[in-house]
Amino acid sequence: MDRRELQDRLCGYHSRFPEEAAYAYRACRLLKESPRCFDRNADGLHVTASTWVLNARRDATLLMLHRKLNQWFQPGGHADSDEDVLQVAFRECSEETGLPVGHIRLLSPMVFDVDIHRIPATRTEPEHEHLDIRFLVEIDESLPLPGNNESHDLRWVALRDVPRYNRGRSLHRLVVKSGAWRRLA
Fold first, then answer.
1. I want to staple 96 with a disulfide (CB 3.0 to 4.6 A). Which of 10, 59, 75, 146 is the partner?
2. How many angstroms separate the Cα of 127 from the Cα of each of 77, 119, 160, 173?
């Protein structure tokens, strides 16, 4: 999915969640106005991509305890100037789970969710925002998850238990959206 296709999808994105609709509108504008929006060193808001990972039964998701932020999130990360966000999402999921890309199955080519969130300042980076483009994927939960050095832990979490790991509105929205996919399992 190249920059133009992503821009078209975001400019036409519809969501029943008002905050997500506002994020998509802001994302559409960013892609039109910022040539460096895929560069993590660009000032302010820049593009990241992630995967919302479900198991085959669609009743659990894979969360990682992020090493820098010490919070539970879905696998994902910076585009690092790669404008193919679907490729970025797969690369980041593979890196963070330790699984080859071939073990990650795309459930829909459509953007599953759009989020904008603030990242606090660290010793090496100022406070900034991520425009996270999210895709829905499946991984076999029986596979061992070697992980990598970006997380303290990787864990399959029942969808109903996600709020015990992360109470953020963003993950709540992902869980709600997973409901439709669970009925298709």
1. 75
2. 16, 6, 32, 24
Q: Which fold has domain 3-184?
A: Nucleoside Triphosphate Pyrophosphohydrolase (3.90.79)
State pLDDT tens for residues 161-184: 999 999 999 999 999 999 876 665
Tokens of residue 185, six digits: 């399992």
Q: How far is C-alpha 100 from the geometric centre of its chain's CA atoms?
A: 18
Tokens encoding 67: 């090493």
Enter the pTM of the model: 0.94
Query: Helix, strand or coil for residue 8?
Result: helix
In DSSP notation, 139-183 reads --TTS-----TTEEEEEEEEGGGHHHH---HHHHHHHHHHHHHHH
Give the max Cα distance, the chain. Answer: 45
**And the tokens for 147?**
């992980």
Average of pLDDT values for 119-134?
Answer: 90
For residue 43, what are the CA distances in angstroms to 21, 47, 54, 101, 132? 23, 11, 33, 31, 16
Split at pLDDT 50, 70, 90, the class of 77 is very high
